[in-house]
Amino acid sequence: MRVGIGYDIHRLVEERKLFLGGIEIPYIKGLIGYSDGDVVIHAIADAMLGALGLGDIGQHFPNTDPSLKDISSMAILKKTMDIVHARHFMVNNIDVVVIAEEPKIFPFKDRIVQTLSEAVGVGKDRINIKATTNEGVGSLGKGDAIAAYAVVSLEEKR
Question: Residue 154, class by beta-carbon neighbours within 10 Å (0-12 exposed, 13-18 middle, 19+ buried)?
């Protein structure tokens, strides 16, 4: 069993779509990034790479690579899963905390879990999404950004 932790944060800006956990969430702002800015998937991919001892998402998907400009985070997750499988591992479970003042994540939780379950090939009971606010503290608390932490455990395939 291997365990990794991941973290990501992006600023919210107008005139961008908001993607979290592989789904589009209706909101007046979206996350700015070299990709679509999906902090949930970025944190999960980072945790997977960490569990394998393979560095971080920036090493594998650098924002200096023009071919990755505006890449879907679901494509990043798929490529990360290819790395996981190539090393003869599979996902055991994923636990994510989303930190956002707005929008509320709860109404989208089931769709996010379903999307992630299909993407990584595990049952929905092995994926947990939680959300909290930053209680008005800092840029997260002012609603200027959204962040996510993820813990992923990987099992060696037998």
Answer: buried
Q: Encode pLDDT of 85-135 as tens digits.
A: 999 999 999 999 999 999 999 999 999 999 999 999 999 999 999 999 999
Structure tokens at 70: 């505006």
How many Cβ atoms are within 10 Å of 11's Cβ, its own excluded?
15
Q: Is the pTM of this model over 0.90?
A: yes
Number of domains in the chain: 1
CATH code of the domain in which 51 resides: 3.30.1330.50
> Mapping DSSP to helix (H, G, I), strand (E, B) and coil, where does residue 92 land?
strand
DSSP-assigned states of every residue in 11-72? EEEETS-EEETTEEE--SEEE-SSS---HHHHHHHHHHHHHTT---HHHHS-TT-GGGTT--
Between CA 3 and CA 144 the distance in angstroms is 30
| Residue 83 structural domain | 2-156
